[in-house]
Write a structure and sequence with these properties.
Layout lengths: L1 H5 L4 H5 L4 E3 L4 E10 L2 E8 L15 H21 L6 E5 L3 E6 L8 H18 L5 E5 L3 E6 L2 H12 L7 E4 L16 E4 L3 H14 L27 E3 L11 E3 L2 E3 L22 H18 L5 E3 L6
C-alpha cells in the first residue's frame, strides 16, 4: 500500500482495493476511512462470513475444530515437556488457533526449538487425520497451529474478486516445510522474499510489466481488471534495475547460477561453508541479471536485462 501511495495513487480509492485475510483463512477485513477535519483516519472492519467463506470450498463444524486443536495442544505440551521448556514458554489457546510463545521478559525460543515444535505437531496432526485442514508453522518467534491454510484464504479471495490462479500472485517469506506460505503454491503464482524492501523492489519490477502504475488506481467506479502473470517466450526486455542489496552472493552450479545469498539455518547471514562473494552495487545488478536470465532461459521464460553497464 505504501508503495502505491508513494507512486501517486490517491489514498481512499486505493484503500477500497485492499482486503486483509487473517488467521490463514479465518477472518477477512477491509480498510474503512473516517474524516476528522483535514485528517483521514483508517481503521479495519470485519467482513461478514456469509460474504466470502463459501468461496473457500470447504466447511467444518465446531466439534471438528475443537478436536483438531486438542490434538495440536497435546502435541505442543508433550514436546515442551520433552525439551524441558515448560517454565520458559506460554501456551496460548484461541478460538481457531493454538500456539506457543516465549514468556514475557524471558529468553527467545531458539530456531531449533521452534522447528521441533512445528514438526512434532505436524506429525501428530497427520496421525490424527480428521476433516479440518490445519497449518502448524514456525513463525520465527513462536509456533502456532491455525485452522485452515493460506491456500484456502487465497481461494476465497479469488472467488470473491473473480480472479483466477494464473492472475494471482502470492508474496511470502516462509515456503519451507514448517512455513505457512507453502500451500499457496497450489493456487497461485508465488514470490519468495526475505524482507519488505525486497517486496518493494519486486513490485517496481512487475508493475510496468502488467501495465499498472500510479494512474491505475485513479478514478472512481468499477474495479480494474485483474492482471494476468504468465511466463512465456518473449524477446529481450530492457528495464531499469530495482534497488538491490549492496552485498549479493552468487554461487554457481551445474544447472545454472543462483542469485540468492546462502543463509545459515537461522537466516543470520551466509551459512558455514557457503560460497558468498561481495561486489559493488553495479556488479550485483549484472550478476543477478545473468543468473536470472540463465534460470529463465532454461525454463523458456522471459529474459529481463537491467539497463546497467557493467563496471570496467
Amino acid at each position: 500500500m505504501a508503495f502505491a501511495i508513494e507512486a501517486g495513487a490517491p489514498k481512499e480509492p486505493l484503500l477500497s482495493r485492499f482486503l486483509l485475510m487473517g488467521g490463514q483463512c479465518n477472518y477477512l477485513l477491509r480498510p474503512a476511512c473516517s474524516h476528522e477535519g483535514h485528517t483521514v483516519r483508517v481503521s479495519l472492519e470485519q467482513i461478514e462470513d456469509e460474504e466470502w467463506k463459501a468461496f473457500r470450498g470447504v466447511r467444518w463444524d465446531h466439534a471438528e475444530v475443537a478436536s483438531m486443536l486438542d490434538v495440536a495442544e497435546g502435541a505442543l505440551r508433550h514436546t515442551l515437556g520433552a525439551l524441558r521448556l515448560g517454565a520458559h514458554s506460554l501456551l496460548v489457546r484461541k478460538e481457531r488457533a493454538v500456539g506457543v510463545v516465549a514468556k514475557p521478559g524471558g529468553a527467545h525460543l531458539s530456531y531449533e526449538v521452534l522447528e521441533e515444535l512445528a514438526l512434532a505437531t505436524q506429525a501428530a496432526l497427520a496421525a490424527h487425520g480428521g476433516a479440518v485442514p490445519a497449518c502448524a508453522f514456525n513463525g520465527g518467534r513462536d509456533v502456532f497451529v491455525d485452522v485452515g491454510t493460506k491456500a484456502l484464504g487465497i481461494r476465497a479471495l479469488q472467488g470473491l474478486l473473480g480472479a483466477q490462479p494464473e492472475g494471482s500472485l502470492h508474496v511470502g517469506d516462509r515456503f519451507t516445510r514448517t512455513g505457512n506460505d507453502v500451500s499457496a503454491r497450489d493456487v497461485a503464482s508465488t514470490l519468495w522474499v526475505a524482507s519488505p524492501e525486497e517486496t518493494v523492489a519486486l513490485m517496481e519490477l512487475l508493475v510496468p510489466l502488467v501495465g499498472g502504475g500510479a494512474g491505475a488506481a485513479e478514478g472512481g467506479g468499477g474495479a480494474a481488471a485483474s492482471p494476468t502473470f504468465r511466463v512465456s517466450p518473449a524477446p529481450h526486455i530492457t528495464l531499469p534495475p530495482p534497488p538491490l542489496p549492496t552485498a549479493l552472493g552468487v554461487a554457481g552450479s551445474a544447472h545454472g547460477s543462483s542469485a540468492s545469498l546462502p543463509r545459515s539455518p537461522r537466516g543470520r547471514g551466509p551459512g558455514v561453508g557457503s560460497e558468498a562473494s561481495f561486489h559493488s552495487a553495479e556488479e550485483d545488478v549484472r550478476l543477478a541479471a545473468e543468473a536470472k536470465a540463465s534460470e529463465l532461459q532454461l525454463a523458456g521464460g522471459v529474459v529481463l536485462e537491467p539497463a546497467v553497464e557493467p563496471p570496467r
